[in-house]
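Folding Problem: From Residues to Backbone Shape
Fields: amino acid sequence; protein backbone structure tokens
RECORD BEGINS BELOW THIS LINE
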Amino acid sequence: MITMTEIAKLTGVSQPTVSRVLSGNQAVNPQIRERVLACAREHDFQPNRMAQSLVGSKTHLVGVLLTDISNAFFADLVKYIEQEAEKEGYSLILFNSNYDLEHERECLDVVRRYRVDGLLAVPVNERSRQWKETVRRLDIPTVIITRQAAGMDCVYVDHVEAGSQVGRHLLEEGYDNFLFFGDPADVKYQGFARALSKTGTGIRERMTVIAGKDSEVIDAALSAHLERWGGRTGIFAYNDRRAAQMLGILQRRGIKIPERAGLVGFDNTYMCDYLWPALSSVSQPNEEMAAAAVKRLFYKMDHPEDRKTEEHPMLAELVPRQSSCRESIR
């Protein structure tokens, strides 16, 4: 790869002049500027962003920290983040914490070393004081995405309302006992349970929560729930991957869907249409969420003196399909 020093030799100008031309300085003689730019294009010159950052210039890099890069939801979200960042001439560096706090800290150390201009993050625990203190010490403009984090800039979906949508849907479809597949501390569960409790019929007493991911444990808990309760069981899984896991267990047990059990996932990933029965799921506005998060991040990057924080909640929408809808029984 050619360097600015080599371009200077080839064009017969000084290295500082080459630097001014390539950084966009318009005060250079037009003929010299064109000669330098033509040489740079001919030799496919690429600026050393890391070297520029060491002398105070922008790296034009945005760090994106995720909890699970293998989740199709995050792959879709990153696609839209990249599209928005590219409009401003920025590239992404991806980090994956794998829901591990220690690895998350290691990722943030790398973020600091790469001197990224801004960070979009999905924290392992956005409510923890330690997380907020770590971000403060980073001293890098940061926006939390997909999670609500009090006192921090964040763009997220109202998961309480989203969970409530699932609860209302399953009630409307005639389910009379329920199962939540996920962590009961998840605000999706809080919205789900709240919607069920509004019926005033003690439905929350007919609720089972399965927090683990081991298929044998899930199978045993599901079996116990179905043996205890007759009627129709409405199941809400906290994401589509876990919903697909539950769907497989239901099918292996020969449980008719949605006659005996209905299932709703979360994220509305591409797999929903490919499963059978097709999976009902909650769709998040990924494109709009990415655009809003990138816009807010660039504002923070351009206005470091503005210390105000903003929360930007968005609404999700349930997409009903055959896995939960009575219509598919007829």
About this structure: The mean pLDDT is 90. The CA atoms of residues 281 and 304 lie 39 Å apart.
